[in-house]
Amino acid sequence: MQFEIHNRPTYASLHVQLEPGDAVVTEAGAMMGMSTGLSMDTKMTGGPWGALMRWLSGESLFLNTYTANRSAQRLDIAPAQPGDLVHVAMNGNALIVQQGAYCASTPGVWINAQWGGFRSLFAGEGLVMMRCQGSGDLWLSSYGAIHQVQVSGTCIVDTSHIVAFDESLAWFPKPVGDINSLLFSGEGLVMQFTGHGRLWLQTRCAPSLADFLHPFRRRMRWHRRCRLDPFWWWPFRRRRVG
C-alpha cells in the first residue's frame, strides 16, 4: 500500500493506492473518490458501547472500511475541516487524539475511547477522549497546519491547539497565570505536558475563528434586514404573518 498527501497545509487530502487484500478504515463521510475495485463495509467498530463512547469523544458512530479486490485501486480521502493532514506510523504505541482529528487508519490500529473525567472536561476535550493504539498507519487531520513538538521535560500549550499526543505524556490543565490572566488574557486554562513523547499542535483553532467572525455576523444581519425591510424599526408598520 502506498499513499500521498496533497495540498498541504491548507486543504490537504489523502490519496491511497491499495493492492489486493489491503484495507483502509475512515471516518464516516471522508471518502472523496474511489476505484471500482474497492468494496466498502460500514459497521460500529467496537460494538454498540464502543461506538457510543467514540461518538461521545466527537467522532462518528460508524466507520467505513475499504478493501481492495483488484490491484492498483485508488482511494481518495478528504477530512471535514480545511487544514492539514499528517501520517503517524504506529508501532504498538497509543495516542490520545482530540475531537474530530481522526481521519483514517489501517485495520491494525484500534480506534476506541476512554473516560477522561473532569480533567479532560476542563481541558476542553470533553469527558471522553479518543484513543488510537496498535500497529499500522494512522492519519490525523486538523484545522490549520500541523506542527510536531518533541516534549522532553515540561511543555505548556493552549488547549484549543492540541491535535494529539503520546499516551506516555502526563498532562493536566492549569491556569495560565494569576486571576487577571485567567479572566482577561483570552487564554483561560492551558495544558501542561510532562515527560518524554510527541505532541502534535495545530496552528489555528475554530473557536478563535468564530470569535473573529462574530462581529461581522451581527453587521451582516443588520445590512440584510435593512435591505429586505428598510422600515423594520418602525413600530406601527404592518407586519407580515408567515
Care to describe what's here?
The strands form 2 sheets. Strands 3, 5, 6, 8, 9, 10, 11, 12, 13, 14 and 15 form an 11-stranded antiparallel beta sheet that branches. The protein has a 4-stranded antiparallel beta sheet with strand order 1-2-7-4, with no helix packed on it. It is built from 4 helices and 15 strands. The chain is an alpha+beta fold and about 240 residues long. It has one domain (about 1-210): Double-stranded beta-helix (4-Layer Sandwich), CATH 3.60.160. Residues about 235-240 have low confidence and may be disordered. The chain is globular.
Overview features:
242 residues; alpha+beta; Double-stranded beta-helix; eleven-stranded antiparallel beta sheet; four-stranded antiparallel beta sheet; 4 helices; 15 strands; 47% strand
